[in-house]
């Protein structure tokens, strides 16, 4: 059976009043989400809410199911069961395509085009008129700090620069929800810091919701909210401070270990 788009049987979640302070519906609302890949379950009844206008980190070890969850949110994952609504619509709804930006772990730019040509091409695909296109391309080049490499072939960029070029493509349509799969892997500390600043600028300035995965726990404090994940389950959905308070741990990494080692309370969500 295919693991690719087209076989998504998720249903929209019922509206649950999970809106943020803005009154907008939850950016993501998942209820009892289950996904099978390669004939075995990899997500086990996940329930979570992503508040609009926040930077939410999806943190967990390699192989725990982060990419599978992100693919479910953007509608490219097959065999999704349960209820999943994104920006108030069922996941995978064609009307969501222009409202979501998705950056996978594999850079999605054409290597034989320059950065600017890539952006111009994708802006045209998005239907941005010729006159607005130059301004949009300049804006996203600034966002990801690639203006001075705009004329370079993407084949000639470093890995980190190519990732940022992919992020620039995702920013073109000013999406309401940005889904980023491990965007900071391989970046030096300065670039990582700059990217997290950009994420918060997008959330604070444009009201964009960012769902950002990472397997590095030290990125936790850069997030407004955290979804801690392990073995296809959500261990915690909290702020970094709330998580430390709830577990009595000094760091999010220790909080994660305590959650793994402590059996869930009766009636708890784990
Ligand atoms: N195409 C596939 N077919 C079958 N099983 C898959 C496929 N892709 C991933 N899996 C399995 O699904 C589980 C979750 O994988 P997923 O890629 O979602 O994890 P992840 O947390 O994103 O990992 P990483 O941090 O390494 O990217 C893993 O056990 C993985 O082996």
TrEMBL record:
SUPFAM superfamilies: P-loop containing nucleoside triphosphate hydrolases (SSF52540). One of its GO terms (molecular function) is ATP hydrolysis activity. Residues 15-27 have a biased composition (Low complexity). InterPro entries: AAA+_ATPase, ABC_transporter-like_ATP-bd, ABC_transporter-like_CS, P-loop_NTPase. It comes from Streptomyces lonarensis. This is ABC transporter ATP-binding protein. Residues 28-256 form the ABC transporter domain. Pfam families: ABC_tran. Residues 1-28 are annotated as: Disordered. The lineage of its organism: Bacteria, Bacillati, Actinomycetota, Actinomycetes, Kitasatosporales.
